[in-house]
Amino acid sequence: MNWFLSERDTTSTERMDDPNCDQEELENTYRQFSTVNSLISQWHKIYRHEIRPLLNPDTPNSLLDIGFGGGDIPVKLAQWTADDGFDLRITAIDPDPRALNFVQQRNRNPRITFLQCELSQMDPAQQQYDFVISNHLLHHLGDHELKKTLLKSKKLSTKQVLFNDIHRDDWGYLFFNLLARPVFRSSFITNDGLTSIKRSYTQMELTKVVPDDWQVDAIFPFRLLLKYDHKLSL
């Protein structure tokens, strides 16, 4: 049970979302996302248990990543699938032109397409993906926007939707505050990470606000995986 974080903070904003934030600190933040996600986001575990079993070894597979940030998640997924002998074509979207500029200077993988694009601009009648994923998107959304995002993601996907986010927890907040400060310097990682924890859901809260055909799993440590499986929903 949470005491300090008993209620979700829906008003605080992250410093990197300020269009006038320091450019050097922003680029350091994008760069350090790779380390943060490697340590806490559990994407390799999610890949092994959720994505890899549904990949087709004989034909190209497709995936849409919503809100790519520093671009490290698509890059790692492309690497893991290639190492396992799968062909995965990734489209990664983010509305922030600063994010696109950052990844365009670094991406050399022809199987990843980065686009400056809002999810609302995607057309399910024209664009279909085996998988739709996001990392740390849910806690940014209000209730109405969350419902629209889930519905659009379901329409864009043919196999599975996977939204990976933070589980709000007093201990998680304390540990991140203590461990991140000496490691992530000259960036927004610590400040925005703490804000993200405060804005995030508990498992019970998220279960209450999503449709009944979506599943909310807790992943150690301090993670939530919101999942929609088309096969289970038939």
Question: Could you describe the 3D structure shown?
Answer:
- The longest helix is centred in the first third of the chain and has 18 residues.
- The model has no long low-confidence stretch (mean pLDDT 96).
- Strands 3-2-1-4-5-7-6 form a seven-stranded mixed beta sheet, sandwiched between helices.
- Helix content is 38%, strand content 20%.
- The chain is of the alpha/beta class.
- A hairpin with a 3-residue loop joins strand 6 and strand 7.
- It has a single domain, classed as 3-Layer(aba) Sandwich (Rossmann fold).
- The chain is built from eight helices and seven strands.
Summary, kept brief:
The protein is built from 8 helices and 7 strands, in the order H-H-E-H-E-H-E-E-H-E-H-H-H-E-E. The protein has 234 residues and is an alpha/beta fold. Strand 4, helix 5 and strand 5 form a beta-alpha-beta unit.
SSE layout:
Elements: H1 23-40, H2 43-51, E1 61-66, H3 72-83, E2 88-94, H4 97-104, E3 112-116, E4 129-135, H5 143-156, E5 157-166, H6 170-180, H7 189-199, H8 203-209, E6 215-219, E7 223-229
Parallel strand pairs: 1-2, 1-4, 2-3, 4-5
Antiparallel strand pairs: 5-7, 6-7
Helix pairs in contact: 6-7
